[in-house]
Recover the amino acids of this structure.
């Protein structure tokens, strides 16, 4: 009789331990610490003292691993403490996309009203949106693809470079007047609906005059290069945030340029590809501004 009671108690204890173990495993699966369940994308906006139309965006740090920022031109990777410049008057919606553990995301948006255009940072590029015939006339073809295999097309969505592969390339450019030793920044919005293969997209600010049929290589400032690891998946946003081509002068990824003499320089945008099947690249809002 005592043996039967002992056996029943032993079986009961084993069942309790087994159920407890199953419950523990279930809790571990449901509460996986490697996947965030709620990512807080909240951020603050602080005007930078002494810098007109310049703002510090500060993301709250808890649970946020990566920040992407969008001021209306597409989201680009950035820092947790991101400084932005909005030189032109207008109302801007700033969106922060925060990435947490396990690729979980959260978004938050705020508006910035810029009352006055910064006169020192006016855009020196003419026709940078390519939307009208007058805009398009400000740009000259570099005539690098005599057969027309690679070509630029213009429209309300911007300028689009069509790349058939085989090393075909084409460029466009315009002349800009600059001041000695003053720093300038170059940027534009850029997009492609899919990743590129063996493709380059480069921006130059050189003092030499572009010549038809001659590949331009005077002072590369920025760009996309699949060999350097960018542009291999679809993208949309500021070239300064997406590109990985190094600035010839600084040796780093930077969109800042300055010149040893005042006078005329040439803003050249050149792209080409070795592979077929790449989708077109589109640009607009091309800017060349005093820093």
């Amino acid at each position: 009789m005592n043996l039967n009671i002992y056996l029943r108690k032993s079986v009961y204890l084993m069942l309790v331990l087994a159920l407890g173990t199953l419950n523990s495993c279930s809790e571990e699966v449901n509460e996986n610490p490697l996947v965030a369940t709620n990512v807080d994308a909240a951020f603050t906006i602080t005007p930078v003292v002494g810098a007109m139309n310049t703002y510090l965006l500060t993301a709250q740090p808890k649970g946020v691993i990566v920040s992407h920022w969008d001021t209306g031109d597409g989201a680009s990777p950035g820092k947790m403490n991101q400084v932005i410049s909005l030189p032109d008057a207008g109302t801007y919606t700033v969106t922060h996309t925060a990435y947490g553990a396990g690729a979980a995301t959260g978004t938050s948006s705020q508006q910035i009203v810029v009352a006055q255009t910064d006169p020192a940072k006016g855009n020196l590029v003419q026709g940078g949106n390519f939307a009208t015939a007058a805009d398009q006339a400000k740009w000259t073809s570099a005539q690098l693809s005599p057969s027309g295999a690679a070509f630029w097309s213009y429209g309300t969505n911007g300028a689009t470079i069509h790349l058939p592969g085989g090393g075909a390339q084409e460029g466009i450019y315009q002349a800009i007047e600059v001041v000695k030793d003053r720093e300038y920044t170059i940027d534009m919005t850029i997009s492609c609906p899919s990743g590129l293969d063996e493709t380059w997209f480069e921006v130059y600010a050189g003092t030499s005059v572009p010549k038809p049929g001659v590949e331009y290589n005077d002072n590369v400032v920025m760009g996309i290069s699949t060999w350097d690891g960018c542009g291999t998946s679809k993208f949309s946003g500021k070239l300064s945030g997406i590109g990985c081509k190094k600035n010839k002068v600084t040796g780093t990824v930077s969109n800042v340029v300055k010149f040893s003499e005042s006078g005329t320089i040439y803003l050249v945008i050149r792209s080409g590809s070795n592979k077929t099947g790449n989708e077109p690249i589109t640009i607009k809002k091309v800017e060349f501004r005093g820093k």
Remarks:
- Residues 1-30 have pLDDT under 50 and may be disordered.
